Amino acid sequence: MADNLTKSLFMSMLDDAERIALSDPDGERVPYTSYSLKDRNESKVPEVRNPLDDLYKRAASCHACHAFESRRIFADPVRKTGAKVLFIAPYPENEMIFSPESLGIFKAWWRLSLLLEEGEWALTTLIKCPVSAFSYESAVACRSFLREEMMLLKPQSLVLLGSDTARFMTRRGDDMDGLRLRRFSINHIPSYVTYSPSEYLHDSSLKRSIWQDMLFIRKELGTEERCK
């Protein structure tokens, strides 16, 4: 069988013959064409799939707990591989991980107070389906998804938002005063605890405690020097 170069030369010769027959040697009516023929058996380059897309697709169709019964949407996390901080909220509050009010508080306090630059933070949830309240059953059902997500995202540290997330992830029954201002290791990743934006919106007196957490965490992260 002729190779591709021979095939291309043959096709070009046919074009030349057509121009001669039409008295068009300069190609004014029949333009010159460059041929690059592919063998029909040539293998196609496989499509590269993001493993996170497959993970979230599986999570969005999970029926392992009762949360799926009221599920209408799936909140896509803010994904950044190798981020300095992965924030873990307890569950999506609506079609987004945070309500508009909680999101404003999060950006103004948690992200800015830690002096994080764009690309240095990612955001996900412990429970993947939007629910109205924390459920231990749902957290257990979603644990494997979060573990796989952490393995793929490869965060340098974790910040656990809220008492429910903190107690579940650290496997401790302490109240927040017993969990805050400490360093934990979760899957060999340095992890820290603070309140969630929704907890602050329900109790503004937490503002001082949250600020103490931010000062402690940013010192642990090494971003403290950025404020000088």
Structure description:
The chain has helices at 4-21, 51-60, 100-113, 136-153, 163-170, 176-179, 197-202, 207-221, and strands at residues 85-89, 121-125, 158-161, 184-186, 189-194. The protein has 2 domains: 1-43, no CATH class; 72-227, Uracil-DNA Glycosylase, subunit E. The protein is built from 8 helices and 5 strands, in the order H-H-E-H-E-H-E-H-H-E-E-H-H. The relative contact order is 0.13. The radius of gyration is 28 Å and the shape is elongated. With 228 residues, it is α/β, with parallel strands linked by helices.
Give the SSE map:
Blueprint: H1 4-21, H2 51-60, E1 85-89, H3 100-113, E2 121-125, H4 136-153, E3 158-161, H5 163-170, H6 176-179, E4 184-186, E5 189-194, H7 197-202, H8 207-221
The run of helices and strands is HHEHEHEHHEEHH
Q: What's the story with the biggest beta sheet?
A: 5 strands, mixed
Q: What is the strand arrangement across the widest sheet?
A: 2-1-3-5-4
Using only C-alpha atoms, the radius of gyration works out to 28 Å
pLDDT averaged residue by residue: 83
* Amino-to-carboxy terminus distance: 72 Å
How many β-strand runs? 5
CATH T-level fold name of the largest domain? Uracil-DNA Glycosylase, subunit E
- Chain oligomer state: single chain
